[in-house]
Structures are given as structure tokens and as C-alpha cells.
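Handout, page 2. Input:
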Amino acid sequence: MADHPIFAPDQTGAILDFFRDQGYAVLSDAMPTEAIAFLNDFVDRSQAAIPGEWGPDRRGCLSHGQILVNHPELDPYVRYDATWPLIDAIMAPGARFAQYDFRDIPPGQGDQAMNFHQDGLNYKPSQPPTAGPFGCKYLCAIYHLSDVDESTPRFCVVPASGPDASLDEAKERLGDAYREVPILGPAGTVVLYGIELFHTRLGGERAKARRTQHNYFSSVGNPPLTSWVLIPQRLSAHSDPALRAYFSAWPESTQAFAAAGYSHAFYDEHVVGKPT
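Output:
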């Protein structure tokens, strides 16, 4: 049994109340089986076609941080309908695109774990980000594309730890309320969390795999989350004003990409053979 409440996507009020208090929320059935099958098939085909752009990292996880550039078929999953109203509310006065990628832990790497950490900017902006009404500066949505249980690699959060500078500080401040909560659930589950929460990936059995989609969001007025994400022209110059605004937080890399005419040569130089 999960050590956390699991909400239906339409329980908006309960989700927002829990997120405001704990800094995360888990939703069931946030992605239908057809979408999960489509995304898994896409990842399989992409890894076979362009293996040099998929890693792995030092823990054996395969990922592609620029996968959106050449694949408009992924556009519907960047601002996914089932969770978008919640995300836009949490990131008031309005969510902005920050990053989109997949994380694929293959069989044979399932026991590779990470340490507890907080995410943050990989550069120093001219103005630091500020927290919104739900206490977070940036948000991540992790969608399970495979079933996750106690035997698989799994995401884990320390609820309400966003204000703390270290895990020891969180333990001292939270006292008996301190918990490390693994996020379990079948494919289609999503966890929303403020990236200031302490979190990690727990290892599972070596032979077990896990695949997830990761969507990151900033908010109006905050700097981009990373300096390296490339936003393609079809999105940065979208004909829909609302979508164009959503993709308006351009990192330095996207500014350079646009200045280069969104060229294939720029992509090849900055992405091919340099997985993120």
C-alpha cells in the first residue's frame, strides 16, 4: 500500500491543498493507456535510430534532454491536458515551459540509486527566482510510463522539505513529521513536486527497469530553469498567443539557436554526441 494519498486528476481542491502543505501530490490515471503505448513506442524507436543522443549517464540511465526539437508528435505531451490546469494554478501567475525529457533505466541498471538532493538552476541569473503562492519556484511532473513498485527503481520525496538547506536541517525542523516517501504506482501515475523538495531515486532489483517522462515548469517572471534547453521554432513562434507565451522563457541556448536560424548545424554541434 502506498505511503501517500493518491488523487484522481479531477480532485482539484484536495490536490492543491495537499500540495500547498506537503510540496508534492500523486495522481492516478493521469495518462491513458493509448498515450503510454505511444510514448513507449516512440522512446524505443528513437533509441534505436539515434542511440548517440540518448546517453547513458554514469548510473546507466538513458535520457535525451533535447528530444522535443525534431519531434512535433511530442508537442501534446509537453503541456498535457490532464494535469495542465493544476500545474498552471500551482505556478501562478502562469506556468512557463522549462524542460521536457524521458528517463529510461534499462534492465541491468535497476539497482543504481542516487543521493537525496534539491534541484536548482545550473547558472546564475541576473535576478533570482521567487516562490509562488504554493511555495515552489519550479515544478516537475514525472509520469510513469511503466509500472513502479518496491522492486523497481522509484522516485522518493521528503515531504515539506523545501525550506531546508540540508537533509539534517529538514530532519531537525520536521521532527516526527520527517518522512522519506517512495512514489509507487502503475503506468499512468504522475507525481507533481516542487524541485526544492529533497528527493532521490531509490534503487530496485538490478534486473528491473523503469521509464518516465519528466516535464519541468517555471513561472511568469522567473528565469529559465536551465541554460541549455533548446525550444524549437514551431513552439517559440507558435501562432497561438497562449502557447507562444508558454514557450517564452528562452534560455541562453534557445536565444543562440534562434540567432542561428534554428539550423540543423547548430543542433548537431550542441546536441549530437552530447546527451543531457
